[in-house]
Amino acid sequence: MVERNPTLGILAHAVMIFGVLIVAFPLYLAFVASTHTAQEIVQSPMPLLPGGHFWETYKAALFGRESGAGSTAPVARMMWVSLVSALVITFGKISISLLSAFAVVYFRFPFKGLCFWAIFITLMLPVEVRIGPTYQVVSDLGMLNSYAGLTVPLIASATATFLFRQFFLTVPDELIEAARMDGAGPMRFFWDVLLPLSKTSVAALFVIQFIYGWNQYLWPLLATTSEDMYPVVIGIKRMIAGGDGQNEWNIVMATALLAMLPPAVVVILMQKWFVKGLVDTEK
C-alpha cells in the first residue's frame, strides 16, 4: 500500500493547477478578444478583461456579416458541415472496421492473411501520401464541394480494423459454439454477441475518430472551393485575410471558440466510456 504524503499531495496539486493555467490562459485570451471590437484588440496593451460586445460578436460569427477582410460565411453553416462530415467519417470508419475485422477473424477464405496485411499496410499510406491521386479520383467523379467528397476518402481505417481484430481474437471459442448450438448465423452472432461486447471499444474509437474528422484541414482545403461547404477549421483560415487587409480578430477568436465546443462536449459526455474502452481488461 502506498503511503500518503501530504507534502507530495500538495505539490502534485500545485503542478496540476499550474498546468491547467498554462493551457487555459490562451483560451481565456481568445474569449476576451471575442468580447471586444477589432479595434480594441489591436491596441497595446490588449485588454485582459471581457468587453461588452459578446452577443454582437457571436451573432456576427454564427449568422455571417455583410462585409469583412476575409470570409464572411456563417459559422453556423460551417459547423454543420463539420458535424456531418465528422459523424459520417466516424460511423463509416467504425462500421467498416467492425465488419472487416469480423470477416478476417471468423471467416475462412483463400488468402485471408494476405487480405489482412493488405489492410494493415495502408497505415503507411495516409491521405497526405496519396493526396494527389485521391484528389484526381474525387474530381473525376464530380465529388468536389460535396459531403461525399469530404468523407469518402477518409472513411476507412486500418488502425480501427486492427484494434477490433485483436479484440475479436480474445473472444472465447465457447461463445461461438454456443451461438451455433442456438442456431444463430454469422450476422446474428455479430449483432447479439460481438457488438455488445465491443461497446467500450466502439465508444473509445468514436471519440478519437470524431475529433479526427472534426479537425480535418488538408483534405477539405483541397476538396472545397465553395463557402457553403467550408468546414469550420477551413473557415477560420479563410477569415484571416492576407496582405494589408484588416482582420476581424474578434470574429476569428469567437469562431475558434465555437469550433472547440463540439469536440469538447463529446469528450466530456463520453469520458467514462473512452477511458474504459482504453484500459478495461475484462473483455
Folded structure, characterized:
This protein has 283 residues and is mainly alpha-helical. It folds into two domains: 6-63; 76-279, MetI-like (MetI-like fold, Orthogonal Bundle). It is built from 15 helices and no strands. The longest helix has 32 residues, at 75-106. The chain is globular and about 75 Å long.
Sum up the structure in keywords.
283 residues, mainly alpha, MetI-like fold, 15 helices
In terms of topology, how is this protein built?
Blueprint: H1 6-34, H2 38-41, H3 54-63, H4 75-106, H5 112-120, H6 131-140, H7 147-151, H8 158-168, H9 173-181, H10 186-197, H11 199-214, H12 218-223, H13 232-239, H14 249-269, H15 271-279
Helix pairs in contact: 1-14, 3-14, 4-8, 4-11, 11-15, 13-14
In short:
The protein is built from 15 helices and no strands. It has helices at residues 6-34, 38-41, 54-63, 75-106, 112-120, 131-140, 147-151, 158-168, 173-181, 186-197, 199-214, 218-223, 232-239, 249-269, 271-279.
Classify the beta-strand content into a percent band: under 5%
Number of domains: 2
Shape: globular
**Termini Cα gap:** 27 Å
The major beta sheet can be summarized as: none
Helix content: 55-70%
Structural class computed from helices and strand pairing:
mainly alpha
CATH homology superfamily name of the largest domain: MetI-like
